[in-house]
Amino acid sequence: MRPHVSVLRLPRGPDPNGRGFDPNSPRFIALCPTTISASTETGTDSVQMREEQRARSVLRESFLRTLIAMTNKQVQFHMYERVKVEAKFGASDIDVLNFQVSELHTPIGVQKEALLRCQDVISYSFDL
Amino acid sequence: MAMRQTPLTCSGHTRPVVDLAFSGITPYGYFLISACKDGKPMLRQGDTGDWIGTFLGHKGAVWGATLNNEATKAATAAADFTAKVWDAVTGDEVLTLAHKHIVKSVNFTQDSSCLLTGGNDKIIRIYDLNKPEAEPQEITGHTSAIKKALWCNNDTQILSAADDKTVRLWDRNSTEVVKQLSFDMSVSSMEYIPDGEVLVITYGKTIAFYNALSLDMIKTVDAPASIHSASLHPDKDFFVAGGDDFKLYKFDYGTKEELESYKGHFGPVHCVRFSPDGELYASGSEDGTLRLWQTAVGKTYGLWKCVLPDKCVPFQIMSNQ
Description:
The structure holds two protein chains of two kinds.
Chain A: E1 6-7, H1 26-31, H2 43-70, E2 74-79, E3 83-92, E4 98-106, E5 109-117, E6 121-126
Antiparallel strand pairs in A: 2-3, 2-6, 3-4, 4-5
Chain B: E1 8-10, E2 17-22, E3 31-36, E4 42-45, E5 51-54, E6 62-67, E7 73-78, E8 82-87, E9 93-98, E10 103-108, E11 114-119, E12 124-128, E13 137-139, E14 146-152, E15 157-162, E16 166-171, E17 177-182, E18 189-193, E19 198-203, E20 206-211, E21 217-222, E22 227-232, E23 238-243, E24 248-252, E25 258-262, E26 269-274, E27 280-285, E28 290-294, E29 304-305
Antiparallel strand pairs in B: 1-28, 2-3, 3-4, 4-5, 6-7, 7-8, 8-9, 10-11, 11-12, 12-13, 14-15, 15-16, 16-17, 18-19, 19-20, 20-21, 22-23, 23-24, 24-25, 26-27, 27-28
């Protein structure tokens, strides 16, 4: 019987926990100049960078805190096609692509458990 | 003693893989994108099949996928009536182009400035990616759903294949038909090779080669089974084809002789393409997998290792042929 060609290993499969595009890969680091650059800039630029960094951090932290504050609260979602639904917010996935909700009130009934696609959501509101 | 081919299976998709495309050769190697009915196209390292990332956002089956030469941008065509452009380094969605029906095909110009789309609304569209809000240029004429639309002749012309059993060559500026080929049945796939201006068309059990500028036929070759896709090697010495019988066939382009056939997929083969360096070819199947096959079986390349006899190997894979 003819021998089979040997392989070093099998191709790596997808990571079940994320969508990939490793920001630490050489290609990512080389090709993605972020607005927050670690390389040396001129004096005025680096001041602007730091200000932008600070502003971004504040906004990001506020957003994450709203997600925590929303947990188990009734949230009203305004979505495309003039859809308004209300549900008890559970959690968001790591890429903010889906919101896990319970007791979703829809025009055709109450859904016990559901996932809302974030890209379909225009805005949402809740009482603190 | 001649070695037996060990295909590398890339798993991850959960539905049939219907299209795949390679990028050009970049300083970071070359890349492969796969279109899948599960709506989640994936980017992989071309020479190993290692998964890099999944483009998330489409709400329906993805029918077509492509990369620009530098593998910095990706484009996908889907059943959700949109074509999307992605940053292929970060995986972020950059642009959504709404259409009026299922989009089947997407193709970048050489400089990535324009995107060609085609689909079930029978209209070819040209989008200027520098002015994405502008209305696209439209090319009408096909009387059935468009399967594939490709830039050719230095992006001055467009080749399209549709279910109306025609392949048409259009002038980009005038949007008029320059030449047309008619067939007895629908064309299942089309590949354009800029170097040498060769067009590879498959229909029924036939793989046909045409001059892409004149649409003169060069030759046709018949396979043992109905073929869904074929690809010509960059050096134009071999071509590979796959289809209904789940096998991959390798033919000599010069003599038209069938050289090898390989079993491995568990479903019909929908797409097959040679890598830009010609060292391997990738196939996508109804079975939800992509497989990478060596052009020169036994050569050390990517994850394949040439092992001399009597040497002890720590890890050896036997494929189930």
